[in-house]
Amino acid sequence: MQQKTALITGANRGLGLEAARLFLENGYRVVFAGRSLGALEEARRQLDPEGTRTSTLELNMTSPGLIRSVPGQLEAAGIQLDVLVNNAGVFPRDGDPVDGLRHALETNVTGAVALTLALSSHLLNAPEPRVVMVSSGLGSFGLCAGEGAPLSESNYLAYQTSKAALNMATVCLAKQFAGTRLVITAISPGWCRTEMGGAEAPRSAREGAEVIYDAATLPAGSPGGTFIGEDGPLPW
């Protein structure tokens, strides 16, 4: 059986690094993608000192040129992708709120959609291709809007708006690829102890990564356009 390959954006730390570890433990080859090749190489060496099951790829989610170059780079390296994990993201909290919103939408939504579309033809060559959009419960209207909603006190304009938009992008992309083998799923890893989540978060990065892995290994025939958390389906 041919070894499967997962490309993970933002793979040098936090959820991305733990997801890479989990995929490697389960026999996958992993492409570490991100802005800093130095950081990616350091992370890759932690998990694969021999360098036989991993590779790195420079990728900035706000650079259309770099995004368009990814399929060609994979083909030149002889890599057939089975899984794309759109994990790279930003959480603007300071500065001008409109600038933060613009940055979050460009990185968390536009970049993820652009990369998914750029790689769609490549992914469709795989037997069971999967795309995992790493979203958040903070992007759920059902969890955040209305009196008494579990996350109603959260108010992070840029981040929450971008994740709500990413959820809708997942729904639209799933419709676009309905009838193909490509399954596109949005997930919420929960509040995890990462640089973004903070040390007080109740869940480990490993636990968050397990939600990513579960979505990436959904069985054939699974529906796309769903939103999944650690305990199952989440409200939009």
Could you please describe the fold and organization of this structure?
- The structure is a single chain.
- The protein is an alpha/beta fold.
- It has one domain (5-233): NAD(P)-binding Rossmann-like Domain (Rossmann fold), CATH 3.40.50.
- The protein is 42% helix and 15% strand.
- It contains seven helices and eight strands.
- It has helices spanning 14-25, 37-47, 64-76, 97-123, 141-144, 157-176, 205-216; strands at 5-9, 29-34, 54-58, 83-86, 130-134, 183-187, 227-229, 232-233.
- An eight-stranded mixed beta sheet has the order 3-2-1-4-5-6-7-8, sandwiched between helices.
- Strand 1 (5-9), helix 1 and strand 2 form a beta-alpha-beta unit.
- Helix 1 crosses helix 7 (205-216).
- The longest helix is centred in the middle third of the chain and has 27 residues, at 97-123.
- It is globular and about 50 Å long.
- The model has no long low-confidence stretch (mean pLDDT 94).
